[in-house]
Structure formats: structure tokens, C-alpha cells
Specification:
It holds the Pfam family Baseplate_J_M. The protein is an alpha/beta fold and about 280 residues long. It has eight helices and six strands. A hairpin with a 2-residue loop joins strand 1 and strand 2.
Length: about 280
């Protein structure tokens, strides 16, 4: 199995400070009163505005420090910062490859140096063969035979076979595949499942804003669960739908958790209605 560390399971780094404007303001105010004993701060005192300005500027500074710390951590870095971390591993971004896919490949690359045909090595090289590969599952049912399942998004069979050819060419390179292995590559298309729901808004809610928030939450949920063998929980769909401004949700389909096999993945297609009353 792959030994790459799952970054999402790492504990929060201690260097990242939880920030509170009110707490910073109180600290500055206390420091001022210690320097000027007996001074009473009234609501009309101009010093109040100076304290607010100082607290806000310190909040921005501390947030900048947090951001700088995150920029050198693989789990949090984005954009060019992530590219520089990838350079430390000798791994370049594949064209317009998104941050999350690139982030996944970087630690996986360590297994590519093995010539023993590890699962992690096959996963890394499959991801690297073509940027359209969304996820990979590798198993071996019998000695010497390696089955590689590459998850693709919805596309034509001809396009899928082109991706398969790229993967086969990469995995059968004499510097990558152990001489005793026979690699069998199969592409996997997602099983499309309609997500049909009725969302009822609270009185006075901004429909356009609520709808945008729901769609953003659903997009993130769908991408996080569009992986081979990854369960799509019914409760998670409801959570994504139930955003601020939503009074209640009726989830019509799916009616239960979606449980794929190890070489299967689900992708939800959206059909969201916003009835006026119920």
C-alpha cells in the first residue's frame, strides 16, 4: 500500500495562531492603562479610535504571519508557494494542474524511487502520465499481475483510450516497471447519480446569495467524494444544502449513503429547486 502521509489527517500546526480582534484590542487597552494609571477611557475619547486602529493593524500583521507560515507547509501552500515546495521533491506542476491534485502527487513521488513496484509508485506514475487522471487504485490479484484503475471524468471512449495509452506507456517504461510485472490498465468512468432536492429559504433570505453558497458547498463536497471507493454520505449532502438562510431541506435523491466498490466512484448531478412555500 501507499505510505504517503495523508495531509488532511495531520494535527493543526502549533505555529498557526488563532486570532481574535476583541482579544487583541483588550490586550492593547490593558497595556495603555498600565502605562497611564488612573486614566479613564470614555466612549468619546479619541484614544479609543487609536486603540481600534492599532488592534486592527496588529490583527492584519498576525494574519500575515499565519499566512507566511502556511506558505511553507505542504498541507496549506497554494499557487507559486506550492510550486516551490514541489521543486524540493523534484516534481513540477503538470501544466494547469490544480493545487489539490499537485499537492497529492508531491509526497507520493517519494515512492517513485522504488524499483520494487510498490502501490504508491504505480499510483504516482499513473497520476503523472496524464493530467486527466482524477484518482487511482492499484491491486494485485495474483503474483506478477498489477491491475491499475484510473478514474476519469465523463468523456468519450476514444478520449479515455488516449489517456489509457499514456498511462500504459509510462508504466511500461523499463525504468519504472519491474521486469516481472505485467501491468493491466483500466479506465473507470464515474457512476452518475442525480442529487434532487427542494430547498426552502427563511423569510427575508437573499435567494441569489444563498443559492451561490449552496452551489459552492456542493461543488466542494462532490469533488472531495469523487474518488475510487469513497463513500458519499447522505448526511453530508444535507449538510452542504443547509446553509445560512435555509429553513429546511427535502432531499429526494439519493435516499441513502452511496457505497462504491474500490474501483468505482460516484459523481452527483444537481437538480436543486427553491419552492416558494411549503
Amino acid at each position: 500500500m501507499s505510505t504517503a502521509i495523508e495531509l488532511a489527517k495531520l494535527p493543526p500546526p502549533q505555529v498557526i495562531e488563532a486570532l481574535s480582534y476583541e482579544e487583541i484590542y483588550q490586550q492593547i487597552e490593558q497595556a495603555l492603562l498600565e502605562k497611564i494609571p488612573g486614566h479613564a477611557l470614555l466612549a468619546s475619547d479619541p484614544a479609543i479610535k487609536l486603540l481600534e486602529l492599532a488592534a486592527y493593524r496588529e490583527l492584519l500583521l498576525r494574519q500575515r504571519i499565519n499566512d507566511a507560515a502556511k506558505s511553507v507547509m505542504l498541507a496549506f501552500a497554494r499557487g507559486n508557494d506550492l510550486d516551490h515546495l514541489g521543486a524540493l521533491f523534484g516534481i513540477e506542476r503538470d501544466g494547469i494542474e490544480e493545487d489539490e491534485r499537485y499537492r497529492q502527487r508531491i509526497p507520493m513521488s517519494l515512492e517513485s524511487y522504488s524499483m520494487a513496484g510498490t502501490r504508491g509508485a504505480y499510483e504516482f506514475h499513473t497520476f503523472s502520465a496524464n493530467s486527466l487522471v482524477h484518482d487511482v487504485y492499484v491491486d494485485s490479484e495474483q503474483p506478477g499481475r498489477v491491475n491499475v484503475y484510473a478514474l476519469l471524468d465523463t468523456m468519450s471512449e476514444a478520449q479515455a483510450n488516449e489517456v489509457k495509452a499514456d498511462i500504459e506507456a509510462r508504466l511500461n517504461d523499463e525504468d519504472i516497471r519491474p521486469i516481472t510485472d505485467k501491468v493491466v490498465v483500466q479506465w473507470v468512468m464515474p457512476t452518475l447519480v442525480p442529487l434532487s432536492a427542494q430547498v426552502y429559504l427563511s423569510v427575508g433570505a437573499n435567494k441569489a446569495q444563498v443559492e451561490l453558497t449552496i452551489l459552492q458547498a456542493l461543488d466542494k463536497f462532490i469533488e472531495n467524494h469523487f474518488k475510487l471507493g469513497t463513500e458519499v454520505p447522505h448526511s453530508g449532502i444535507i449538510d452542504a444544502l443547509h446553509q445560512p438562510g435555509v429553513r429546511k431541506v427535502k432531499l429526494l435523491t439519493p435516499t441513502e449513503d452511496l457505497q462504491p466498490t474500490v474501483n468505482q466512484a460516484y459523481r452527483l448531478t444537481l437538480d436543486i429547486a427553491f419552492p416558494e412555500e411549503a
